[in-house]
Amino acid sequence: MHIIVSERVKKEYGARIRAAAPGAKLITLSVRDGKAHWAGNPALADVCCFSEDFWQDPELRRRAIPELFRLEALRWFHTFSAGVDAPAFAVLAEQDTI
Fold first, then answer.
1. CB within 10 Å: which end of the chain, N or C, has fewer?
2. In the chain, how long is the greatest CA-to-CA distance?
């Protein structure tokens, strides 16, 4: 399993995630010099944990959302809040992402 998480989630919960899902690969996204930088291959991600820090950091949000919505292998999009019925998230449903 390949899971996209923020750097904060990896730092704070990475060990717990790996304990619950042995063999899971954590893929992180950060922004450097205005560009998205992936630690790992996002094209392999089947799960995304869209934590609060993805949303609250404006630069990370601007870079993350378009990148995440293009991931064809993504099958589970877990968000910290309700609201995925917003039109912006419709593309995930069209890709059969839960």
1. C
2. 35
Instruction: Render pLDDT for 46-86 as a digit per residue (tens, 0 to 9).
Output: 999 888 888 888 888 888 878 888 888 888 888 876 666 66
Which residue's entry shows tokens 């996204």?
A: 29
pTM of the full structure: 0.82
| CB neighbourhood size of 29 (10 A) | 21
At position 29, the amino acid (one-letter code) is: L
Say whether pLDDT at 98 is over 60. no
User: End-to-end CA distance of the chain, in Å?
Assistant: 16
Q: Which residue has the tokens 């990475």?
A: 14
Local structure of residue 81 (DSSP, 8 states): S
Q: CB pairs under 8 A, 24+ apart, for 86-91?
A: none
